[in-house]
Every structure is written in C-alpha cells, then in structure tokens.
Amino acid sequence: MTAxxxxxxxxxxxxxxxxxxxxxxxxxxxxxxxxxxxISQRDGLNSNDEVDWLSLGKVLTPxxxxxxxxxxxxxxxTSERNLELNVEIPQVDGLTxxxxxxxxxxxxxxxxxxxxxxxxxxxGLLRGTFPAIGNSGPLSITFDEPVxxxxxxxxxxxxxxxxxxxxxxxxxxxLLGTFSTPGTSSLAxxxxxxxxxxxxxxxxxxxxxxxxxxANRAFAINSVSIATVPESSCILGVxxxxxxxxxxxxxxxxxxxxx
Length: 259
Known about the structure:
Elements: H1 10-28, E1 36-39, E2 49-51, E3 74-78, E4 84-88, E5 99-102, E6 119-122, E7 139-147, E8 149-156, E9 161-169, E10 175-184, E11 194-200, E12 205-212, E13 219-221, E14 224-227, H2 234-252
C-alpha cells in the first residue's frame, strides 16, 4: 500500500514535507543541553512522584542501635510511581554507614529542623562526640529514567549556618547546572530545613548531587519529590494530529491507492 503524491492536495503535500523536514532536523542536528532552574520551595517543583526513605524498611532507633538497620553506601530505592533510583554516599573509615531515622521531639527521638515525623536519610557519623565528626558526602541520586524536576530538604548536623549545593547532570554526565543557597540547622522541628530543587526545560535530569560547605560534618535529607512526564512525547502527539489524522481520512475517502 503506497500513496501517490499526485493524489494529495497542495496543502497536504506541504504538511508532508514540513513534517519530513522537521523530523530530519531532529535526527541530524546536535542536541543542546537544556536550561535548568533552581527551585527553593517544594510546592514550586510541581512534583507528581516521591521517594520516602521509610520505604527502605530500615529505620535506626536511638538508644537501640541494630547493625542491621544501617544502609550500604550504595543502595537502590523505588518511588511511589515505581521509578527506580540509586543512591551513592562515599564510605569514610571510622564513621557509621548511612542510616534512616525519624525526627521527633527529644523525649521521643532526635529533634531537627525538619518537620516532626519526617524520615531522614543521614550520611553517617562518629558516635559519642560533639560536634560529631560526620560523612560530608557528596550524596548522589541517579534516576533509572530522566526526570523533569527533583529536589529535597537538607540540613547539616551540629552546625548552625552553612551553604548547601545541588548539581544536576544528564544521562551523558553533562553538567546541566549547579546551585547553592544558605542553610541553617536547629532542634525546632519547624520544617525550616532549606529545600534544594532543580527543574529542566526537558525531562533530562538523570542525576542530582548534594553537598555542603562543611567538611567532616554529616547531613540529612528528607523525602525526594520528583516530577516525571508521560512516556509519549508531545512531538509524537503533534505528528499524530497533523499527519495520521488526515491521512486516515484520506484513506477512507480513496486518497490512498494500491500501486
């Protein structure tokens, strides 16, 4: 089954060659690194997915430390919408491995300046010292499929003022952008831990790397909010509307013919 060009109107031929030229440009022109933007509020991320560290099934309880509750320095997690991701935190001799704990009032647990009840992923520390020597990271999160936006709140252990950084990379390890902002820590349980988020023009964020200005100090992050996109691209949708729609009508009316 082939289409005779003579059977198409001038306007239909224009659309055919316009689509061909557009898809040709998409194939042969080099892709540009997309622009990314810093987001300082979780609501501004427009997320539709999340990773809660409780989902790992390992929570360290203060005063009853079980070695089995520590995490490996590289581990996988799954979001609420089944997006796989991998977390990497460098191993530091003499410090505990990473672990998850729930921040609560001091009478019940460990107070922080995250929201009471949050489950925090903590990089690891040397126990029994104050201020505690800790694992300063960086903490890297790699997504199995590129996302449009992602971010989390972050705070540094035993340090009141500092700077936090987030870097975004695409799947070819190209740096999309690095952003920084001041942060503070306290025991107020007031959800004041600073939010670090990144959003992109396209769904091309494959990895986020979090770090801080403080050497030898551990840090924690809470749930990671993620913005994913539908599997089908809007370009395919446009081609379907412009091309397949009227071609189907043409076929029904006899425009397509056997050769």
